[in-house]
């Protein structure tokens, strides 16, 4: 069997959820959109079902997959619904929904529903992507009440720069949110992962932790006690030596300066490992630090075994996980851990309880 796999540590997921909830000091929806950031939404939801206050996904199909798998906790749609059919389905399956623009509000007013909704009214406090602004928030809130179809309204907003401790825009967003929602009844939800860790003023009734559940620190540098949930790993399938001056792989990007022992690894960009990383990107070989050399191919990549004489065919290669932080690989690839984790595909997911 091809040795490429993502090992998912569900105990680490639970540890991180508890940490998020404790840091926030109130309820927390575990954000498991995009197949739980590549970790498998149904398995992650089941692993958290006994303790999570609820879950959040992006859209209805993601929620219905969880309902079909027997998940009975609250589920919030962060994008809300796209049409009246979805709205009726969301009500029938008791799925909570974000309401972030006029068309969604009108849909609620005009669609007959089997059960009253729990709406999450989204306030645009400065990210300028979605939500109602200023006095339009109170108007939308009143229209939800007047529709007779809403049993509860939670007030939410989302931060553009919560991962930057110095950015005053987060404090400004909190102020705008508080001003726009003053006097309106309902729970408040502001904090994503970075705000849970860095902005205690944003910790209100409901947190929405995503990336930190998976152990990728949104504010790298602090010791936050998170545990990596996914270990992306494979093994060496062949070894060869190349001479000084010989080039390795596509484009001949890596040229050996000395006799180099090259390990060929069953993992490529079709598995979600980023093609954009440079020579020197860290990997671990049987627990020893080493480096990627040569371009990443679709199905294979190559690592330097020159200083690891004991390593050979069958040696375990960690691409990211406990030992190699996914944040570091993401930085080497010029992206963020979110994108790498979501892009994992084709490899099998093996779960550890
Ligand atoms: C994805 C998402 C989150 C989770 O964000 P993290 O940075 O992963 O914690 C929270 N809220 C909203 C609205 C989102 O879309």
Give the helices and strands, then pairings.
Elements: E1 5-9, H1 10-24, E2 27-31, H2 33-37, H3 41-48, E3 54-57, H4 60-68, E4 75-77, H5 84-92, E5 96-99, H6 102-110, E6 117-122, H7 135-147, E7 150-156, H8 169-181, E8 188-189, H9 193-198, E9 206-207, E10 230-242, E11 247-248, E12 254-255, E13 260-265, E14 282-285, E15 288-291, E16 301-304, E17 316-320, H10 326-333, H11 337-342, E18 348-352
Parallel strand pairs: 1-18, 2-3, 2-9, 3-4, 4-5, 5-6, 6-7, 7-8
Antiparallel strand pairs: 1-10, 10-13, 10-17, 11-12, 13-16, 14-15, 14-17
The structure holds pyridoxal-5'-phosphate.
Protein name: Alanine racemase
Enzyme class: isomerase
Cofactor: pyridoxal 5'-phosphate
> What low-confidence regions span 5 or more consecutive residues with pLDDT below 50?
none
Helix fraction bin? 25-40%
Strand content: 15-25%
Q: How many structural domains in the coordinates? A: 2
Family: Belongs to the alanine racemase family.
GO biological process, one term: D-alanine biosynthetic process
Function: Catalyzes the interconversion of L-alanine and D-alanine. May also act on other amino acids.
EC number: 5.1.1.1
Concise summary:
This protein has 353 residues and is of the alpha/beta class. It has eleven helices and 18 strands.
Structure description:
The protein is α/β, with parallel strands linked by helices. It folds into two domains: 10-214, Alanine racemase (TIM Barrel, Alpha-Beta Barrel); 230-352, Lyase, Ornithine Decarboxylase, Chain A, domain 1, CATH 2.40.37. It is 29% helix and 24% strand. It has eleven helices and 18 strands. The protein has helices at 10-24, 33-37, 41-48, 60-68, 84-92, 102-110, 135-147, 169-181, 193-198, 326-333, 337-342; strands at 5-9, 27-31, 54-57, 75-77, 96-99, 117-122, 150-156, 188-189, 206-207, 230-242, 247-248, 254-255, 260-265, 282-285, 288-291, 301-304, 316-320, 348-352. Strands 1, 10, 13, 14, 15, 16, 17 and 18 form an eight-stranded mixed sheet that branches. It has an eight-stranded parallel sheet with strand order 8-7-6-5-4-3-2-9. Strand 14 and strand 15 form a beta hairpin. The mean pLDDT is 97. Pyridoxal-5'-phosphate binds at residues 31, 33, 78, 158, 192-194, 208-211, 218. Residues 31, 33, 78, 158, 192-194, 208-211, 218 line the site of pyridoxal-5'-phosphate. Catalyzes the interconversion of L-alanine and D-alanine. May also act on other amino acids. Residues 229-352 form the Alanine racemase C-terminal domain. The modification N6-(pyridoxal phosphate)lysine is found at residue 33. It catalyses: L-alanine = D-alanine. Substrate binds at residues 129, 298.
């Amino acid at each position: 069997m091809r040795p490429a796999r993502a090992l998912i540590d569900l105990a680490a997921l639970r540890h991180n959820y508890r940490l998020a909830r404790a840091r926030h000091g109130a309820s927390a929806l575990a954000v498991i959109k995009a197949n739980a950031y590549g970790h498998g939404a149904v398995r992650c939801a089941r692993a958290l079902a006994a303790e999570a206050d609820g879950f959040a996904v992006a859209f209805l199909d993601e929620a219905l997959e969880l309902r079909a798998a027997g998940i009975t906790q609250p589920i919030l749609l962060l994008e809300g619904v796209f049409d009246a059919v979805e709205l009726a389905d969301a009500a029938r399956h008791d799925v909570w929904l974000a309401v972030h623009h006029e068309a969604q509000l009108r849909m609620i007013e005009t669609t007959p529903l089997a059960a009253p909704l729990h709406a999450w009214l989204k306030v645009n406090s400065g990210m300028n992507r979605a939500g109602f602004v200023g006095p339009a928030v109170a108007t939308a809130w009143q229209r939800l009440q007047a529709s007779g179809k809403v049993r509860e309204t939670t007030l939410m907003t989302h931060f553009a720069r919560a991962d930057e401790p110095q950015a005053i825009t987060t404090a400004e967003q909190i102020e705008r949110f508080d001003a726009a929602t003053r006097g309106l009844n309902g729970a408040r939800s502001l904090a994503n992962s970075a705000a849970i860790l860095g902005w205690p003023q944003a910790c209100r009734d409901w947190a929405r932790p995503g990336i930190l559940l998976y152990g990728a620190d949104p504010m790298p540098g602090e010791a936050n006690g998170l545990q990596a949930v996914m270990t992306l790993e494979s093994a060496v399938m062949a070894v060869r030596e190349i001479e000084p001056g010989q080039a390795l792989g596509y484009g001949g990007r890596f040229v050996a300066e000395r006799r180099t022992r090259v390990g060929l690894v069953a993992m490529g960009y079709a598995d979600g490992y980023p093609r954009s990383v440079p020579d020197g990107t860290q990997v671990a070989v049987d627990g020893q630090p080493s480096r990627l050399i040569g371009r990443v191919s679709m199905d294979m990549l190559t690592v330097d075994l020159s200083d690891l004489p004991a390593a050979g065919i069958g040696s375990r290669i960690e691409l990211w996980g406990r030992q190699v932080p996914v944040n570091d690989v993401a930085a080497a690839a010029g992206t963020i851990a979110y994108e790498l984790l979501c892009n994992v595909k084709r490899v099998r997911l093996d779960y550890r309880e």
